[in-house]
Amino acid sequence: MIRISQVQLPVDHTQAQLESSICKKLRVNENAIESIKYSIVKRSLDARNKDNITYNYVIDVTVDNEKNILEACRKSKTISWVQEKRYSLPVRGQDLMSIRPYVIGSGPAGLFAAYFLAEHGYKPILIERGESVEKRTVRIHEFLDSDQPLNVDSNVQFGEGGAGTFSDGKLTTGVNDPKGRNRLVLQTFIDNGAPEEILYQNKPHLGTDLLCRIIKNMRKKIIKNGGEVVFNTKFVGFSSSNGQLDSIKLESTYKGRKHIMEVDCNNLILAIGHSARDTFRALYEQKIHMEQKAFAVGVRIEHSQEAINKAQYGENYLEKYGALLPVADYKLTARTKDGRSVYTFCMCPGGYVINSSSEENRLCVNGMSFSQRDGENANSAIVVSITPDDYASSDNPLEGVEFQRMLEENAYKAAGGKIPVQLLKDFVEGNVSDHFGSVYPNCLGNCDFADINTILPDYICDAIKESLDSFDKTIKGFADPEAVLSAVESRTSSPVRIVRDEHFESNIKGIFPCGEGAGYAGGITSAAMDGIKVFEEIYSRYKS
Hints:
It is built from 14 helices and 26 strands. By secondary structure, the protein is of the alpha/beta class. The protein folds into three domains: 80 residues, Alpha-Beta Plaits; 244 residues, FAD/NAD(P)-binding domain (3-Layer(bba) Sandwich), CATH 3.50.50; 195 residues, no CATH class.
C-alpha cells in the first residue's frame, strides 16, 4: 500500500481537489483516479501561517501498478510504502470457563472489556455502582440545576460511561499502538453511532451528547450478545484461597435498605475509575498490592472562545475563512525555574466548567463540551505535576487520595459549596474578586467568588503564576487579567496504581485491574485500549 504525506489543501477544498492532488503526488493522469482506492489516514489543520490556513492530509492508496508508481516516485520524500495494520485477536485458549466473568465499572475500560467479552461469547456481567446513562443525566442536572443533594453513587464521576461521559470526549492518545487497538476503539465507537471522521481527524472528539447515545448502544449490544448490565450495585470485597479469587461481594440498595450478596467469581475485571476512593480503601484492606503514583492538580481557566479563535487563526479569520474553521483549541506546557512541570489539560473549546463532585462536602471541577462545541467560552485545566514526595509522609498508597480530599474540602468551604471562581489578576495579587469583566463563566453548577490561593498549596499556586508568561507568549491574551479561574481540578488521573503482572493480574490471581483508576491509562481511548488488553488475556485462556 502506498502512503502519501503532506497533501496540503485550502480549508475550502473540494473532493475533486483532493483527488487531483493524489494523482499529482503519484504522477499519474487524473483520469486514473477511478482505478485508485484511497482512504484518509490523518487530517490536521495547519494554522502557522494565518494568511494561508490549510488542511494537511496523510492518504493511503491502493492501486494496481503499485511497484511502477513507487519506482517513478522513488525520489519523493512524501511517498512511501506501508503495510496495512489490522487488529487481530490472539490464539484462543482452550480451558473451559465454568463461571461467567464479572466486570466492575462501566467507564471506557470496563465497557470495552465487557463489549468484546460479550461479542465473543463469554456472557460477562457488568456491574456499575451508578445509574444508566439516561437516569444518570437526569440525576446530574437535578444536582447542578435544582440544588438537589449530591448522589454519591450517580454523578459526573460515577455511572454508566464513567467520568469521560461528561467531558469533552477527546479520543486522542499518546499510547504506542502497533497492534491496532486504537483504531479498533474508534471503529467500535463508529459502529455504535459516532461519525466516521474520528478515524482520521487529528484531534477527534465526541462530546457529551454523542457519548451518551453511543454508550447506550454499546450496552444494548452487550445484552444482545448474552451479557448482563447491572446498575446501582457496588463491588465491596472478595474472597480468595491460595492466592486465587473465589467469590466477590456486591452491595445493592432496594427500598432504602442495603443488601450484600456473595457470588462465585474467578475472573474479575476491575475497572473502577480514578474516583472510587471507597473501593481503593476496601482493596487495600484486603491486601491487594497498590502503590502511590504521580498525578497533577490545579485550576480551570476560561477565556472567550472568540479570543482563542483570534489568537490561533488571526484577528481577521472570519473575513478570510468564514465558518470553515473549527473552533480553536490549544495545548501548552511550561517548566518552572525549580523544574516543576505545568501544562494545560483537557482543553474544551466552546465548553463549560462543571461541578464534578462525588463526595459530600467536597468539590472539584472538570471541563465538558457538546459535539458542536458551541458554547461562548473556551476552558482548560492548568495543572501542576506532583509526586509522592509532595503529598506523602509515609508509604501508604492512599495518601494521594487524602491529599485530593483535602484540596476538595478547601474548595467546598471557600465558596460555601459553590464552585470557587476568581479573576486571573486577583489570583495573582491574592484578592477576592467582586465582579466579572469581559469573561463571564460558563459554569454548570452555581459559582461564587473566593481566593483560590487559600485552596491550593503555595507551591502549586506559584507554579501556575510562573507559567502564565510562557503561555501568553504562545497564545496571545492567555494571561488576560479578566480570564476566570475555578477550582479545584483534582481528578486529572488516579493517585493510586494497583500493581499487576505481565498477565494483567494483581497479586490475587483472577483479579485484573485495568483502566485509568488502576493507574494504567489517561483518557477515554487509552482506558478503552487497556480494557481490550485484559479481554485479550482472558480470550487467550478460555473458550467461551
